[in-house]
Amino acid sequence: MKKNKQEHEIDLKSWLFKFRSKWYLFAAFSVIALAAAYVYVKSSPRIFEYQSTLLLGDQQTGSKKAQELLEVLDVQSKGIKVEDEIGLLQSAEMVKQALSKLDFSVSYYKVTNHWLNNITNLEIEEQYETAPYVVDLDTTSYQLVDIPLKVRLLDDNTYELTIESENVPRYDFRTHSIVGSIPSIEFKKTLNFGEAYKDGNLSFTLHRSKVEDTKPGKEYYFVINSLESQVKQQQNALSVTPIEREARVLVLKSKGSIPDKQIAFLNTLMSEYVANDLKEKNHNGLKTLEFIDSQLGTLSDSLRQSKQALSSFRSNNRIANINVQSNINYEKLSQLEAERARLNTDRTYYANILDQIKNGNGIAQSVSPTVAGIQSPILNNLFLQLAELNQKKAGYRVNATADNPMLRKIEGEIENTRGAIVANLQNLIESADISINNVNGRIGKIESNLASLPENERKLMDLQSQSEFIDKKYDFLLEKRAEAAIALATNATDKKIVDHASMVGNAPVNVKPKMIYLLALLIGLAIPAGFIVLMDNVDNTIQGKNDLGNITNIPFLGVVAHGSKSDKLAVLNNQRSAIAESFRSIRINLQYLMSNSNFKVIGVTSSISGEGKTFCSVNLSSELAMSGKRVVLIESDMRKPTFGKYFPVSESVGLSSFLTQGLPLEEVIQKTEVENLDIIPCGPIPNNALHLLELPKMQELLALLKDKYDYVVIDTPPIGFVSEYFVLMRHMDVNLYVVKHKYTNKEMLTQINDLYASKKVKDIYMIINDLNYDKTYEYGYKRKGSYYYA
Q1: 407 and 473 assigned to the same domain
Q2: Angle formed by the axes of helices 324-359 and 405-450, to 10°?
Q3: Strand, helix or coil for residue 709
Q4: What percent of the chain has pLDDT over 70?
Q5: Is 5 among the domain residues?
Q6: What one-character-per-residue DSSP string does 226-283 give?
Q7: Pfam families under this entry (predicted)?
Q8: Boundary of a domain, candidates 273, 300, 327
Q9: Which three-class secondary structure state does DSSP give residue 645?
Q10: Are residues 581 and 661 in the same domain?
């Protein structure tokens, strides 16, 4: 099979011709696509985009800055994770908190009076504070949510309420939960504005609003929204992204059809987020004050009792001075007891933290290490890591399920960090126990030295040292309480609203009429174009000369124009027709190509029946005869004779009679109405047509005919069905192979291509039969020659 080097090139003119011939498909699909686009534009709600910006800060303001005054922990503050803050902003809890501040529990809609709504409700507008009525919900009762409740205004005082739905959920606004569902509900009631309606499933009152609906709707309805559906809707419309990589300024975007509604939501969401941050920091500061106040309360009683005991002892025993040695010993003893008290306090604090962590009350989230008085840098870093992991976990839980691998990994890291904190606390407690034992030993030595002092002086020194220790500790806590109070008073959030919400542009982001109509037009043109291309590629038949040239190297002789099937002898009956002109062209081309050879026998064949092989042989023979040549036409297809459709022939004698009965040549040749044209029909149908053609009589017949006629045309059987052609082709001087336009399958040419490639058949030419000039680009120019055809 021939491989044309340009077979992959696109012939634009040819494709344009094919498209133009099916112009009605393009027109129909374009109209349908534009109509669908119009319906889409009219029925789609206009969705606008809204934007606001929020600054996360650097965590060096407010309580973070004030807590540095405590100087309890010297660890560099770590910056916040932008991804975690984005997760918190988009979390269901944060969105739910913002929606709880807004009144979005009822959505109002209007079915317009557009003509499209006469078919079905296609054009629907959402209303916000512009509806002609207001729904006052009774949130203490159950409500049917997420279904339309149709309202038809009868007059200024009455309305008609209609409900038709299935599987309707019942919702409790007090707990924000579904409390069952109703399989089906359908009713219609006439009510007065201001009249409360209540049953087991609904409880509300409709009031006539003062809003004048300038364009009254065909129909109104409202939907009672559950909090969960509102949260899901707002989460789907909300997006939070930093303005650039590593930036702390977040851009919050949302989409909705009601500007006031979406702007209010974005502003409320940011305000609640900032308020939550300040609330959390104030909570940490209050815990610090509560801890210090509890310690001061305990020390206040101890300090009062110690001073009273010292005063009573001096008064009762009249002791004023102590010698220098006892002063030194008691001073050392006082220092050691102070150190032991500090160690005991630290151990108690470590044990308290360890107990709370083991009991799982979330101390790592509720108490900041910078307030707790922990002296271990390692433990402080572990607390910071645990807080960061908890913040990551909160961010991932926005969209991730409990089985999410990343969420499980973070939970594992949290457990490992908590285990490390527990181990460090246990080590600190053990270290404190060792230090306490050491201090106790040193105190024991000093106390043994003091045992030799007078009993009264020793007791006085005990009372003085105890009083001084309690007094110093009390002063220390008073100082720290003042610092903590300052920190709480100067507390501020590091989050800041930079830009409040506003609409981005003035055009909707989902419906752009010009673009939609253009896209619809392109689709309307693309569908028929794709259909034509698909059918062209699926169609494996011969489409024209170029198509034939791509699949065979056999030379091309000419085409036969499309004509009426009833006109069998076109060259005779209508000599000015396009068909007659086609055969003249083929005859001239054939005589020109064979001008250097003395050819006599012309064989005409095809791949299968129905391609016009006999039609071409009859009309070509007639054209040769009409040009003044003596021509005889032989019907060698003795299995399926068809000459009777072209000539009034006698089927009693013919080719089979000559080959089998030995009749004289004159008896088998029959005259026709065409001058100079004789025919030899097949005669009686034999049982062994192939064997007859192989007889020497066939060669004898052709020899006789060559002497008598200028041309012998043999109408052979199709090579795709029987083998007679391969017997006859050795007698042929010229072979004409007929293919039919848009009928002959390309695969049918494989056999003749193989014969031609192996040089088993020579002087063969291709003819395309029944080619419609109006349906092919290659010969489209011939349509302009209709003036020359009758």
Answers
A1: yes
A2: 160
A3: coil
A4: 84
A5: no
A6: PHHHHHHHHHHH-EEEESSTT-SEEEEEEEES-HHHHHHHHHHHHHHHHHHHHHHHHH
A7: AAA_31, Wzz
A8: 273
A9: helix
A10: yes
Q: Is 632:669 a contact under the CB 8 Å cutoff? A: yes
Cα separation, 731 vs 752, in Å, equals: 17
The single residue listed with the structure tokens 């000459």 is: 643
Per the CB < 8 A criterion, the answer to whether 766 and 556 are in contact is yes
pTM above 0.85, yes or no: no
Both 244 and 103 in one domain: the answer is: yes
Strand partners, 187: 163
Q: Please check whether residues 163 and 239 belong to one and the same domain.
A: yes
Say if residue 265's pLDDT is above 70. yes
Last-in-domain residue among 273, 296, 318: 273
The domain spanning residue 763 has which CATH number?
Answer: 3.40.50.300
Q: Is residue 68 domain-resident?
A: yes
| Of 594, 619, 632, 617, nearest in space to 709 by CA | 632
In sequence order, which residues have a C-beta less than 8 Å from that of residue 405 and are 6 or more positions away? none
Q: Please, which residues bridge with residue 151 across strands?
A: 161, 220
310: Cβ contacts below 8 Å, ≥ 6 apart:
460, 463, 464, 467
Domain-embedded: residue 154: yes
Strand 631-635 vs strand 711-715: parallel, antiparallel, or unpaired? parallel
At 560-572, the pLDDT tens digits run 888 766 677 878 8
- Residue 765, pLDDT score: 93
Number of domains in the chain: 4
Per-residue pLDDT, 363: 47
- pLDDT single digits (tens) 443-488: 888 777 666 556 666 677 777 777 777 777 777 877 777 777 776 6
Q: Is the pLDDT of residue 787 over 60?
A: no
Do the beta carbons of residue 674 and residue 626 sit within 8 Å?
A: yes
Region 133-159 average pLDDT: 91
Provide the residue type at 470 as one letter: I
Residues ≥6 apart with Cβ < 8 Å to 318? none
Distance of CA 639 to the CA centre of its chain: 63
Six-digit token pair at 306? 């110690």
Looking at the structure, do residues 182 and 308 belong to the same domain, yes or no?
Answer: no
Give yes or no for residue 683 having a pLDDT over 70. yes
What length does the chain have?
790
Residue 773 in domain? yes
Q: What is the pLDDT of residues 618-641, one digit of tens each?
A: 999 999 999 899 999 999 888 888
For residues 372 and 353, the answer to whether their CB atoms sit within 8 Å is yes
Q: Compute the average pLDDT of residues 105-134.
A: 80
What is the Cα–Cα distance from 514 to 521, expressed in whole angstroms? 11
Taking residues 27-31, what's their average pLDDT?
91
In this predicted structure, what is the pLDDT of residue 78?
45
CA–CA gap between residue 405 and residue 62 (Å, rounded): 37
pLDDT confidence of 192, banded at 50, 70, 90?
Answer: very high
- The percent helix, strand, coil of the chain (3-state, each to 5) is 50, 20, 30
Strand, coil or helix: 630: coil
Among 357, 8, 358, which Cα is nearest to 369's? 357
Which domain range does residue 99 map to?
Answer: 55-273
Q: Are 189 and 245 members of one domain?
A: yes
Within this chain, do residues 528 and 656 fall inside the same structural domain, yes or no? Answer: no
> Which tokens in the block code for residue 363?
């101390």
17: left (phi over 0), alpha (psi -120 to 50) or beta: alpha
Q: Give residue-wise pLDDT tens across range 351-403.
A: 888 887 777 654 444 444 443 456 677 877 888 888 888 877 777 776 767 67
Residue burial 643-668, b: 16+ Cβ < 10 Å; e: rest = beebbebeeebbbbbbbbeeeeeeeb
Closest CA to 620 of 633, 638, 610: 633
Q: Based on the fold, state whether residues 639 and 753 are members of the same structural domain.
A: yes
The model's pLDDT over 52-88, given as tens digits with 9 standing for 90+, comes to 999 887 644 444 444 444 444 333 444 567 888 888 8
72 with 480: CB under 8 angstroms? Answer: no
| Helix boundaries (H) for 559-664 | 570-573, 578-593, 613-626, 655-661
Pairing between β-strand 158-172 and β-strand 148-153 as defined by DSSP bridges: antiparallel
